[in-house]
Amino acid sequence: MDNTDPNSKHCVPCEGGALALTAEEVALRMKNLPGWNAIDNKKIEKKFHFTDFKRAMAFANEVGDIAEFEGHHPDIFIHDWNKVTVSLSTHAIKGLSENDFIMAEKIDQVIKDSAE
Which CATH architecture has domain 39-116? Predict the structure, then answer.
């Protein structure tokens, strides 16, 4: 995975018969995603903490907007009033695809943009 602007990348529909990324490919891509965890090379997940419920909800809604635009939808879990856990996988291939890593970069960019 390169270090280009995440906004320049876009998810593409998985074709029938597409293969999930290998463990080696996942490990290589994970190096560019601090705070994200690969789980059994089938999904990646990150926990985000916010100062209040309203900010957690705003973040979840922004992630939802990005997911809808990209056509690649994560699982979003809002818990403990100020925490959001996001999990990404490509259900059609029962594993991870490049789309999952593109979405993770875009999600991390939301946090970076809000800190500026």
Answer: 2-Layer Sandwich (3.30)
